[in-house]
Each structure stands twice: as C-alpha cells, then as structure tokens.
Specification:
With 310 residues, the chain is α/β, with parallel strands linked by helices. The chain is built from eleven helices and 15 strands. It folds into two domains: 2-111 and 249-308, Medium-chain alcohol dehydrogenases, catalytic domain (Quinone Oxidoreductase, Chain A, domain 1, Alpha-Beta Complex), CATH 3.90.180.10; 117-245, Rossmann fold (3-Layer(aba) Sandwich), CATH 3.40.50. Helices cover 29% and strands 26% of the residues. The model has no long low-confidence stretch (mean pLDDT 98). It binds NADP nicotinamide-adenine-dinucleotide phosphate. The site of NADP nicotinamide-adenine-dinucleotide phosphate has 27 residues, from helix 1, helix 3 and helix 4.
C-alpha cells in the first residue's frame, strides 16, 4: 500500500507518499481500505517531531479514517492511534463506528476524533447550561458548538472575526473575537460558563477560572498557549470549580472502546437527525497531505480538512 511517511521531522514538505508494507490486522482488529482521513492539529505536531505515536500505534500520521472493512465489505469509520494517512488501516473492531445514515463514507472521516474528544470531555448533560468553546472554528470547535446546541446548551465561542458568521450558522449564540475583545469581560456580560472546553492551556488558565460559574468545570484538551501556568487556588475554591485535562490518543484500548460506544449512543443519533453535520472546509488528495498541513497551519480553515483517496 501507500502511506504518508515522515522520513525526518520538519515542515509540511517532509510528508512523503511512499510505498510501505500493508498493515497486518491482529486479533480483534479489522482491516479498512481507506476512502478518507482528516487532518488534526496533533498531526502537525507529529510531523514536527513533538508528538510521537503511542507504543504499538502505526508510525504514520492520522487519527481517524473512513472506508470499507476488507473482510465484510461494510462501510465504517474509526478512531485511530495513528496510521490514517494510508490506503489500508488495521484497527480494533471496537474502535469502529458505522457510517451515520445520511452521510457519505467520505464525510464520515470528519467525525471520529472530534466526536470522541468532545463527548469524553464535556459529556452529554448540557441542557440548560452555558458552554464556552475556545477556538470555535477548529475541527473540535465546530463539532462542540453543534453538539452542545443540539443538547440544549447556550454556546459562547471564541474565534477570529472572519469565522464568526460560519459559527453562528452552526448555532453558536455568542461569538467573541479573542484578538480584539477580552473574552472574560464578554462572558461576564452574557452570564458565566458552566463548562469551558479549552484548547489554549496555560495562557488562559487564570482567565478561564474567572469566566467559570459556581460549580463550573474547565476541560483542557490543548496547550496552544503553553503548558505551564500559575493558578491562585482561592479563585477555584471559591467557585467549587474543577479542572480536567485529557489526551484521547494515549488512552488504552478499553477506554477508547467505551468512548466509541458512548459516541454511538449519544452522538450518532444527532448526526442521523441532521442536528450535527460534518463541517468540511475542503478536500485534498491524501498524496498532497503537505498542502493540507499548510492550510491547517495558518488556521484559515473552518472545521475539518479531509484527505481523500481516489
Ligand atoms: N486532548 C485531546 O484528546 C485532543 C483531541 C483532539 C484535539 N485536541 C486539541 O484541540 C485543539 C483543536 O484541534 P483541531 O485539530 O480541531 O485544530 P484546528 O482545526 O487546527 O484549529 C485550531 C484552532 O485554534 C484556534 N486558536 C488558536 N489560538 C486561539 C486562541 N487564543 N483563542 C481561541 N482560539 C484559538 C484557531 O482559531 P482562529 O483561527 O480563530 O485563531 C483554530 O481554529 C488543538 O489544540 C488540539 O491539539 C486535543
């Protein structure tokens, strides 16, 4: 088969479409012939040499895939520890999902990573709550907005102004341009956030606590603004607040299987009803993954960039 390889860490130009051995599915695994994969920000870090695959995972990038199970002919999509940028992918059957009714196989590649990440971090108990989503224009953000709105939450999101119209179309009730506005002050004008889904990390830690409601919860999933910060615990205590921080890729087999089951139960019906749709910024042939990484690196996209195989 062919896969996108990373012969040495570096810029997008290092990504190389090369012939490599076919993966051999182990016990409990299925072999998927890829129709599409999608770019995640983590893939850029892996390419730069800052985010190695977990033990046992494929060395090729790609955290999600859609395609056809070579044994049964069934169309599926899957959450991966790596290896999605390839013509064939071996993955535990328990980490696969059916293609939701109403979506093409290709479109379904936009969902596994964002659905599993968002569901496992903010849960589905959001009715009547206020959710602050940082980076609403990201793959994660565009999914989180739709998911929370579908569940009956009020959604506030931060993004550069050029993306606001698209995010309002997805259902966001309030949009904040974090480059010009103080998001804490803006959130306080609206109310307070019961849940915050954060991708910035250190730079926003204290301000996120400031924006949090009493009994609120901050779920940190990204460190685009650094990893080390100081926090005045009195602010957290006073609010009886909690902070969680997780990375999906490093979770074990069983935890991922449980998350995939949760997504099937809680998210797939919302996709099949049309309440959530995959937000696809553009499609780029997988062999041109370097071009896809350049697009994601400058962050002009809204939603997901798909990598397709003819
Ligand atoms: N922990 C996990 O398990 C897990 C899983 C998946 C993803 N993630 C993380 O989630 C984040 C999103 O991933 P993705 O693949 O969806 O990324 P993506 O599509 O590449 O989007 C990145 C986004 O970051 C936004 N951004 C940068 N600085 C910001 C700031 N100060 N305030 C608000 N937004 C800001 C950009 O928005 P603008 O263009 O508006 O600036 C852009 O939309 C990444 O940090 C990724 O590492 C974590």
């Amino acid at each position: 088969m062919h896969a996108i390889t990373i012969p040495s860490a570096g810029g997008p130009e290092v990504l190389t479409w090369a012939e490599v051995p076919d993966p051999q599915p182990g016990a409990g695994e299925v072999l998927i012939r890829t129709v599409a994969s999608a770019v995640n920000r983590a893939d850029l870090l892996q390419r730069q040499g800052h985010y190695n695959p977990p033990p046992g995972a494929s060395p090729y990038p790609g955290l999600e895939v859609s395609g056809v199970d070579t044994a049964t002919g069934a169309a599926v999509c899957a959450l991966l520890g790596g290896g999605g940028y390839a013509e064939l992918v071996a993955v535990p059957a328990e980490h696969t999902l059916p293609i939701p009714a109403g979506l093409t196989v290709e479109e379904a590649a936009a969902l596994p990573e964002v659905a599993c990440t968002v569901w496992s971090n903010i849960g589905a108990d959001l009715a009547g709550k206020t959710l602050l989503v940082h980076g609403g224009g990201s793959g994660i953000g565009t999914f989180a907005i739709q998911f929370a709105v579908a569940l009956g939450a009020t959604v506030i999101t931060t993004a550069r102004r050029a993306k606001h119209e698209a995010l309002r179309e997805l259902g966001a009730h309030h949009t904040i341009d974090y480059t010009e506005q103080d998001f804490v002050a803006e959130v306080h004008k609206i109310g307070k956030a019961d849940v915050i889904l954060d991708i910035v990390g250190a730079r926003y830690l204290a301000r996120n606590i400031d924006a949090l409601a009493t009994n609120g919860r901050l779920a940190i999933i990204g460190m685009q603004g650094g990893a080390k910060a100081e926090l005045d615990l009195r602010a957290l205590l006073a609010k009886r607040g909690s902070i969680s921080a997780t990375a999906l890729r490093a979770r074990g087999h069983d935890e991922k299987a449980a998350i995939v089951r949760g997504v099937r139960d809680d998210v797939w019906p919302l996709v099949e009803s049309g309440a959530i749709r995959p937000v696809i910024d553009r499609r780029i042939p997988m062999r041109d993954a370097a071009e896809a990484h350049r697009v994601v690196e400058v962050s002009d996209h809204v939603g997901k960039v798909l990598l397709t195989i003819d």
